[in-house]
Design brief:
mainly alpha; 131 residues; elongated
Length: 131
């Protein structure tokens, strides 16, 4: 529930009842209304902070066009066909199944590199229009 929804409820309550006319029998309702308003303000502040931080975090982690092109070794203006050919060529080199006799560290590195290559290829595929 947003701050403004709670505020309108409290306003309606204030105009339709006697909690604000000095009657102490309604002090619990008044306190509860104030708690609801304070909670809504905190929730709105948290939501605003999260909305502000989310794009920055996404920008740090997200694949971008330049990085994807660098990973696959293609030009920035590459076509979908060129991207697909580069992907097939590079995935064969770095795929963990082709590194069977290597050490576990090399296989782990190959898995991470393969994941990076797949993410770059998927990003460029979506950006260039192939689903």
């Amino acid at each position: 529930m947003s701050f403004w929804q709670i505020f309108s409820r409290v306003s309606r309550l204030a105009t339709t009842s006697s909690i604000f006319d000095g009657d102490r029998s309604h002090s619990g309702e008044l306190r509860r209304a104030q708690e609801l308003i304070d909670q809504a303000r905190r929730d709105d502040a948290k939501a605003a902070a999260a909305a502000f931080e989310k794009p920055a975090a996404a920008a740090n982690n997200a694949m971008n066009h330049i990085r994807a092109c660098e990973i696959l070794g293609v030009a920035r203006a590459a076509t979908l066909l060129e991207v697909a050919q580069a992907y097939r060529k590079i995935i064969v080199i770095h795929h963990p199944d082709h590194a069977v006799k290597s050490t576990p560290e090399e296989q782990c590195t190959a898995r991470i590199r393969t994941q990076e290559i797949n993410e770059a290829y998927t990003f460029l595929k979506m950006k260039l229009g192939m689903r």
